[in-house]
Design a protein that fits this description.
Number of strands: 16
Radius of gyration: 18 Å
Number of helices: 2
Distance between the termini: 34 Å
Order of helices and strands: EEEEEEHEEEEEEEEEEH
Length: 229
């Protein structure tokens, strides 16, 4: 996968991370004050971060590190209406050595394209938000159980889920705008568990569960043909 470079009139960064913690049961979608429609704002974006069958590299699968070099690193890109057709047909896999537990996205301006080379311009007043797309619904994820949109609609956080090393996931958006095309400039980053005295109690069960799942995967991969494990 080629390492992408982008033009940003305000900053240069390295692309969007995606993250999570354990397969979801009930999705809790907290939209705050932003159940916007396409008639009230010019551009509405609803990210979709769902699990994909399979593991590791493959056909039409990008490596996460080809966009984002590590936890907390910001990658900037363009997304909006219409959705990028390439992203609709490609997935991403976690090629990092870490379990990813959260994803953060922020709209900070406008973009001229969703493919490179692109121009990304900082403009806090640009009329674009995360929210509910008419006829298609709001943001969704079967990886992250909690999705929170800020009251101004400019940021969205996917938390309470888990993406293990090798896991595949979608990186697409539902969107609508009164203008075609219409693209927002986005910051993106992902998080991994913080291990410290205060966090150890809550993180340890998650890590133990992850290790158990990895062990089962390795056992199946090393088993002779026909073995049941």
């Amino acid at each position: 996968m080629r390492q992408r470079e982008m033009v940003n009139m305000d900053r240069q960064s390295v692309r969007h991370g995606v993250a999570g913690v354990v397969a979801a049961t009930a999705l809790s979608l907290l939209l705050g004050a932003c159940t916007a429609s396409a008639t009230s704002l010019d551009l509405v974006i609803a990210p979709v971060i769902n699990r994909v069958a399979g593991s590791g590299p493959g056909s039409n699968v990008w490596a996460l590190s080809s966009f984002n070099s590590g936890p907390g690193v910001v990658f900037d890109y363009g997304a909006g209406y219409p959705p990028d057709p390439t992203h609709l047909s490609y997935d991403i896999y976690n090629d990092t050595p870490s379990a990813i537990t959260a994803l953060h996205l922020e709209i900070y301006g406008w973009a001229d394209n969703t493919e490179e080379p692109w121009v990304l311009v900082t403009d806090p007043t640009y009329p674009a938000i995360f929210g509910t797309v008419p006829g298609e619904g709001g943001p969704e994820s079967d990886i992250f159980r909690t999705i929170i949109i800020s009251p101004d609609g400019k940021t969205i956080d996917f938390t309470n889920g888990l993406l293990l090393p090798g896991d595949r996931f979608t990186d697409i958006v539902k969107s609508f705008s009164l203008t075609n095309p219409n693209y927002a400039a986005m910051h993106s980053s992902y998080s991994v568990p913080e291990i410290g005295a205060a966090a150890l109690g809550s993180v340890l069960p998650l890590l133990l569960g992850s290790l158990a799942l990895l062990e089962r995967r390795l056992r199946r991969g090393n088993a002779p043909p026909g073995a049941v494990g």
